[in-house]
Amino acid sequence: MVYIGGLIVLLTFYAIIKRYETRMVLFVAGLAMAILAGKPVAAIDAFAARMVSSGLVTVILTVMGFAYVMKLTKCDAHLVKMMTGVLSKVRVILIPGTVLITAAINVALPSAAGCSAAVGAIMIPTLIGAGVHPAAAASAVLAGTWGSVLSPGGTHNAFMAKMVNTDVLTAIATHVNATFVGIIVVAIGVTAMSIWKKEDKGYVAEADKAVTEELKVNYLKAIVPLIPLILLVLGSKQVGVIPYVSVPLAMISGTIIAFFVTFTNPQEISKQFFAGMGDAYGNVMGIIIAAAVFTTGMKLIGLTGALINAMKASSGIAKIAATFGPFIIAVLSGSGDAATLAFNGAITPHAQQFGYGILQMGSMAQLSGSLGRSMSPVAGAAIVCAGLAGVNTMELTKRNWPVMVVAVLVVMFILL
Fold first, then answer.
1. How far lies 5's CA from each of 290, 341, 346, in Å?
2. Taking a C-beta distance cutoff of 8 angstroms, is the pair 299, 305 a contact?
3. Residue 353 CB neighbour total at 10 angstroms
4. Sequence-distant (≥ 6) Cβ neighbours of residue 136 within 8 angstroms
5. Which residues contact 409 (CB under 8 A, 6 or more apart)?
6. What is the pLDDT of residue 211?
7. Contact 255, 263 (CB under 8 A)
8. HEC string for 14-79
9. What does R_g of the chain's alpha carbons equal in angstroms?
């Protein structure tokens, strides 16, 4: 049975890589393993249980609702314009600054594709206009789209916090140092790659490529997307400047403030907030629910136990698996979510048996998957960046893969 389970898992990842619908693939694979184990009902029970996992649902839905409101009110565009304004005037920090700014904005706007669209619409034409090759410009933005690993509203941070029954800020604190070092490594690496390929200057852009929407920054609007993040940090157990603030409270407070700052039609704000919640449940929670069925099937067929026993024999196996498993699948599939959630659901709860903490191993898998997606030619963020630059996504992968491999190794040595 274990070997059959292993074959199903391999076929599952193959199907994800071939871009079959992720939720369908995970659900069918999990149910198939449960049926072979003679316990199909257990898989459906796991499906139902994860549907109402309140700790995750409330966080993920309200974060996405707030993000939709920021897009409606254009507060996200003002934030991007404010943070990128200085970069166009200081050439030496243009490329590394783009990576760092993208990563910072990705904390406030956790969607990689959404962040790349918001930042890329301004920074890619700016970089091209400054003489940076279009592919190098797009690569710089894509390389920064893993800053969401520091977001209190990030899917994986909420997932790991729920596993150990702690708050999200504590989960983030586990990998904050490794993330900062990793982002610096990526910023330096992307810059070095552009210099080595002689793409950091001298490119002459066509007039129509440099055209971008003029936007006069409203600094009050620019601050609005940061308000929930500020509230969460100030109200966290580690800081405690204000009473504890939950993620839903922070996001709803930010939404209310957005109304008073922009005076957008409240009916439209309401529609967009709930539209974001609906999309979040269908897309993000959908993957989490399907992944729960998948990991339950692995456990029922005996594959999880076999993997744990193999990893017990060598902590090095667990170390390599947490580092390169989600990374490789994310590169091939374009999603850091499916493989990371499957790994963190099946293996990470047993991390202490391998000599690691649950948050420690879960963080490694999260960062690994995010770094892998930031070089994937089929990731949504890569497609957005490449489209804005007018290049093929493989051009971005060619420039980012050496940087991301070095970054994931550096993060591994820090975390594990």
1. 17, 18, 13
2. yes
3. 14
4. 95, 127, 190, 193, 194, 197, 199, 200, 399
5. 323
6. 39
7. no
8. HHHHCCCCHHHHHHHHHHHHHHHCCCHHHHHHHHHHHHCCHHHHHHHHHHHHHHHHHHHHCHHHHH
9. 21
Burial of residue 90, with CB atoms counted within 10 A of its CB: 0-12 exposed, 13-18 middle, 19 or more buried: exposed
Region of residue 242 (left: phi > 0; alpha: psi -120 to 50; beta: else): beta
pLDDT computed for residue 237 by the predictor? 66
pLDDT of residue 208: 40
Instruction: Extract the tokens encoding 274.
Output: 């709930």
Q: pLDDT averaged over consecutive 10-residue blocks of the chain (416 residues)?
A: 88 82 90 94 92 74 87 86 71 89 86 81 79 93 93 80 86 94 97 94 60 72 87 76 87 95 95 92 84 88 79 73 85 75 81 88 92 88 86 91 96 92
